[in-house]
Amino acid sequence: QVQLVESGGGVVQPGESLRLSCAASGFAFSSFGIHWVRQAPGKGLEWVAFIRHDGSNQFYADSVKGRFTISRDNSKNMLYLQVNSLRAEDTAIYYCVKAYSRTSYYFDYWGQGTLVTVSS
Amino acid sequence: DIVMTQSPDSLAVSLGERATINCKSSQSLLYISNNKNYLTWYQQKPGQPPKLLISWASTRESGVPDRFSGSGSGTDFTLTISSLQAEDVAVYYCQQYYDTPPTFGRGTKVEIK
């Protein structure tokens, strides 16, 4: 079955960086786009970033553009999100989410998420 | 960005009764060339990630009970739970994937009356 396991979250101070990881299994990883979607505590869902199946293109929400970088290693079935210059408003659970297809923007499987807390 | 407006914010329904959630988009989600509406519904139970219930506005995912149904087209959509069960207590989100960025409604919390 499809599994997405995030890691790398933690408590950091404003301006610091983290690298989030997502280990994928149970599907042909290199054939599907993958997204990051976040959810602030007690709040709704916000799309963050997308990478195509082959890593050829990346897309970002305006709120994170220039600070976050999504990447993937298809040889390891791994997805990453480098998050820099963190702000308090970046505090959220970050979900690794499988796209329905190579380029789709709807999400058929979600990981359990990793919590990022930005606080001084 | 396409704005997704859900209503109500919350609702309490008796067990076995119908629950109806509405979702309105700021522009049409109907792609004329394939006659498909680019809208999904997700269910999020406390402490869990969202789960995909319905795609293309009305296509129920495998394993989703048939008491869940989606309807609507263009800018107005509805998620209906025909006979509410205790395990349906959750927050429900609509999401459009017609355009980037994909956007979500603010969620509707469903509780038992």
Description:
Chain A has 120 residues and is mainly beta. Chain A has strands at residues 3-7, 10-12, 18-25, 34-39, 45-51, 58-60, 68-73, 78-83, 92-99, 107-110, 114-118. Chain A is globular and about 40 Å long. The model of chain A has no long low-confidence stretch (mean pLDDT 96). In chain B, the strands form three sheets. In chain B, strands 2, 6, 7, 8, 11, 12 and 13 form a seven-stranded mixed β-sheet that branches. Chain B has a four-stranded antiparallel β-sheet with strand order 1-3-10-9, with no helix packed on it. A two-stranded antiparallel ribbon of chain B has the order 4-5. The chains are: A mainly beta (120), B mainly beta (113). At the A-B interface, strand 5 and strand 10 of A face strand 7 and strand 12 of B.
List keywords for this structure.
heterodimer; A: 120 residues; mainly beta; 7-stranded mixed beta sheet; 51% strand; B: mainly beta; 4-stranded antiparallel beta sheet; 0% helix; globular
Unreliable runs of chain B: none
* Structural class label of chain A: mainly beta
User: What's the multimeric state?
Assistant: heterodimer
Query: What is the helical fraction of chain A, as a range of percent?
Result: under 10%
Residue fraction in strands of chain B: over 45%
Give helix and strand order of chain A, one letter per element, not per position: EEEEEEEEEEE
Radius of gyration of chain A: 13 Å
Radius of gyration of chain B: 13 Å
Kindly report the average pLDDT value of chain A: 96
